[in-house]
Specification:
The chain has about 475 residues and is an alpha/beta fold. It has 18 helices and 18 strands. The protein has a 7-stranded mixed beta sheet, with helices on both faces.
């Protein structure tokens, strides 16, 4: 017999969740609910949208499941309405994770709890901050690293009871807490107000960001670019540098990478190939997803390229988005390629590593529009760009900063022979594009040391003391 369910979140995510739930044939969705009054009385997939005030009488016989990116704010809302058992849709597996806090009488906003929300192991500022926590902070506060991709047990309780929360992505910010935004990269692509987003999304983003207490910044340039996108009080931007960049310095990247991919790298040059993820945002397309991978470009002879890597004592490591990993892994096996390896988030997570702890193993970075190259500039190593769908990307997602050639300090490649030629030049001549790299590095980075985490922790300490002391 199907159990009744109320989906909280009458949005695109809620629509997808409804289809998944119907196909599983376990639950019967009786209502949607949403905080947006304009949606009340509407129907999604034939299901009526009701006000949150109507959920409580239903909760005794129906499961309440959150299907929204504002899951934390909704969890707090449900808790305050005395609905302390609820589910949350996992956007990766589309399964429902349930949380039962009925044993908790009331939320205790602990004065000394700090939560760091991490979203992945691919350049997480919060993971880096956690790894570089100072003794002073560890003694004074309770610091929790919380994995948003593994929402289990006390995930929401820890967040709701924290005095200060560190974020790296968009989401809901509780204005009864101290909220600090670290974000996840220097913006090359358009964001929010500068993107082709619906006006209601832009307004919502700016309102949400206005609730932040501080935004960590690379430089005045970064602050200016980000504020063009989110439009908040400029005094909230604090230039400290990014914690993840501390991991670029002083780590044994080659040793760690060698262990991860099970390959002896002692006498090898390493190329890291990391194209940006062509994620669809608000039903918009980012470039041409069919052109994201130069290794699959028309006329690209993989056997010839693999032989080239062997002759040059080079191995290439591919770091794709998880949705492309399986496809790439199967392709490498089918082609019997010997000098190309896959690096995935699962391996990094299992090894308790962040991508930035092994990036310094790379002698050369290849990318298209991924913001990783801005951070890679700190290592003063060569970068090759493969913008296969440059015009399509400009026309769809668009660039926040122009022109592309100036902001991308390295050769641009579109075919195999060109790529092989530029790889040899880049690895054999350190001065190749070095002046251009230095120019962009100086614009992007105010600090070029390994002390960004220390500066961020000092800021956190001052925010906590100011709040505690009133």
């Amino acid at each position: 017999m199907q159990k009744d369910l109320v989906l909280f979140g009458a949005s695109r995510l809620g629509e997808i969740a409804l289809k998944k739930i119907i196909s599983n044939n376990v639950y019967h969705v009786v209502y949607f609910s949403d905080n947006d009054q304009k949606k009340w009385g509407e129907r999604i997939g034939g299901i009526e949208v009701i006000p949150p005030s109507m959920i409580l009488p239903l909760a005794s016989n129906s499961d309440v499941v959150i299907a929204s990116q504002y899951d934390l704010a909704i969890a707090k809302q449900l808790f305050e309405a005395n609905i302390k058992k609820f589910g949350v849709i996992d956007e990766t597996s589309w399964e429902i994770d349930f949380f039962d806090y009925r044993h908790v009488k009331s939320l205790d906003k602990k004065n000394n709890k700090i939560s760091l929300i991490m979203n992945n192991n691919s350049g997480s500022n919060t993971l880096a901050l956690y790894k570089n926590v100072t003794d002073k902070i560890a003694k004074a506060y309770s610091v929790e690293l919380i994995d948003s991709k593994n929402k289990k047990g006390n995930y929401y309780l820890d967040l709701l009871e924290s005095k200060l929360v560190m974020h790296t992505h968009d989401g809901s910010f509780d204005n009864t807490q101290i909220n600090v935004q670290l974000w996840h990269g220097f913006p090359l692509k358009t964001l929010s107000n500068m993107a082709n987003f619906p006006e209601n999304i832009k307004t919502r983003n700016s309102l949400r960001w206005s609730k932040l207490d501080a935004v960590i910044s690379y430089s005045q340039t970064y602050s200016t670019f980000m504020n063009a996108c989110f439009g908040i009080n400029g005094n909230k931007y604090i230039i400290t540098g990014m914690p993840r960049n501390d991991l670029l310095f002083g780590t044994e990247g080659k040793k760690k990478l060698s262990k991860l991919i099970k390959c002896n790298l002692d006498k090898k040059k390493v190329i890291l190939y990391m194209p940006t993820f062509r994620e669809t945002i608000h039903e918009l397309t980012d470039g041409d997803e069919n052109k994201f991978n130069i290794l699959q470009a028309s006329g690209f002879d993989m056997e010839k390229y693999d032989d080239f890597l062997k002759d040059q004592d080079i191995i290439m490591v591919l770091k794709f988005h998880p949705v492309h990993i399986k496809q790439a892994t199967n392709y490498i096996k089918e082609m019997n390629l010997k000098n190309i390896y896959i690096l995935d988030d699962i391996s990094l997570n299992q090894s308790s590593l962040d991508l930035y702890e092994i990036i310094n193993a790379a002698d050369l970075l290849i990318t298209d529009y991924s913001s990783i190259y801005f951070d890679f500039l700190l290592l003063d190593k060569p970068i090759i760009f493969v913008p296969l769908d440059l015009q399509e990307y400009k026309n769809s997602r668009g660039f926040l900063i122009e022109n592309y050639d100036f902001w991308t300090p390295g050769p641009k490649c579109f075919i195999l022979d060109q790529l092989m030629d530029e790889i040899k030049k880049s690895l054999n001549y350190h001065s190749y594009y070095q002046r251009e790299r230095k120019t962009i590095c100086n614009i992007v980075h105010h600090y070029k040391d390994a002390n960004s985490s220390l500066r961020v922790w000092e800021l956190i300490d001052s925010l906590m003391k100011k709040s505690i002391n009133g």
